Amino acid sequence: MPAHRPALATDLDTLLRTAADRRRMLRWLMAGAATPLAACGGGAEISIGGVGSSTGSSDNSSTVSSCSIIPEETAGPYPGDGSNYNSNGIANALSLSGIVRSDIRSSVAGASGVAAGIPLTLTLQLVNTASSCANLSGYAIYLWHCTRDGLYSMYSTGVTGENFLRGVQVTDSNGKATFLTIFPGCYAGRMPHMHFEIYPTLASATGSGNKLRTSQIAFPTATCSEVYATSGYASSAANLAGISFATDNVFSDGTELQMASISGTPTNGYSASLVVGMSA
After folding, report:
1. DSSP string computed for 176-215
2. Which own/partner pairs from 261-264 qualify as long-range (CB within 8 Å, at least 24 positions apart)?
3. Phi, psi (degrees; rounded to nearest 5) at 265
4. pLDDT digits (tens, 9 = 90+) for 156-190
5. d(CA 264, CA 270)
6. Rounded Cα–Cα distance for residues 152 and 161 (Å)
7. Which residues have a Cβ under 8 Å from the Cβ of 89 and sit 6 or more positions away?
8. Which residues have a Cβ under 8 Å from the Cβ of 15 and sit 6 or more positions away?
9. Spatial contact of 145 and 181, defined as CB atoms under 8 Å apart
10. Cα 3 from Cα 20, distance rounded (Å)
11. CA-to-CA separations, 199 to 11, 171, 212, in angstroms, rounded
12. How large is the C-alpha radius of gyration of the chain?
């Protein structure tokens, strides 16, 4: 895992324990109150795999009939949202020219690096849990994740001057924001994942102080294993062998609302989607 300041590690552990305790308590309360009719409703509907049911079978369907608020998670030590520092000072990718883009595989603002890896198209659909899962348009989503080698641009040794695998998109009329990226790697101590923050508008997506929610995206272990068996992901394969969702310090209390639905192959690339619920 890339090195970071001890203070950040301490803060991260505290945040994770607090978030996990809150989520476990909520899951216990929901389980105790569940009935055959209310198990998927009653103001806290569970959307299996994080993807709510829709009116059609097509992946392009934009109507979500059940949704829950996605768990709040730590942004981790490498957010690049102006909330901490890297070796060059305050790290804020949100202030960079060109950071608003769909294809996040290359760096912007004078940096020229390109992240190698198997292509992954990720679509996040933002819905309002307080209004029958209505689509939320006009919100900004900031997405970031590690390279296939487990490194974070702007922070990790060798890529501090890069800002690839970070980008912002605005949700459309269907509440959707799509990113073209690579399948993330796996570093020691964490299951493969991506981070994202939600902002009320694009104009407000300038720093972490304006964010509405922070969470993470999980990926099926079988797909990760399939990807990591290919050239370039050898270190990720080794790290994946030493971790599981049960021992992951973020996902150990459940991934129902954070597990991406994914299809594709290493040869042709992958497409993934996740319905993200929030109260607006």
Report:
1. EEEEEEE-----TTS-SEEEEEEESSTTTTTSGGG-SEEE
2. 261/49, 261/50, 261/51, 262/219, 262/220, 262/223, 264/120
3. -140, 160
4. 999 999 999 999 999 999 999 999 999 999 999 99
5. 4
6. 11
7. none
8. 74
9. yes
10. 24
11. 23, 10, 6
12. 18
Mean pLDDT value across residues 117-136: 98
| One-letter amino acid of 217 | I
Tokens of 212: 């509405």
* Residues facing 123 on adjacent strands: 178, 273
Contact 196, 215 (CB under 8 A): yes
CA-to-CA distance for 32 and 65, rounded, in angstroms?
24
Q: What is the 3-state secondary structure (H, E, C) of 89-118?
A: EEEEHHHCCCCECCECCECCCCCCCECCCC
Contact 9, 77 (CB under 8 A): yes
Q: How far apart are CA 93 and CA 144, in angstroms?
A: 10
Which of 33-47, 110-124, 126-140 has the lowest average pLDDT? Answer: 33-47
Average pLDDT score, the chain: 85
Give the model's pLDDT for residue 131.
97
d(CA 195, CA 175): 18
Give the separation between CA 130 and CA 152, rounded to whole angstroms: 35
Amino acid letter, residue 55: T
- Indicate the helix (H) or strand (E) that contains 4: none
| Angle, CA 131 vertex, CA 20 and CA 45 arms, to 5° | 45
Domains of the chain: 6-278 (2.60.130.10)
**How high is the pLDDT of residue 16?**
41
Regarding predicted confidence, which is higher, 54 or 266?
266
pTM of the predicted protein model: 0.80
Note the pLDDT of residue 62.
Answer: 84
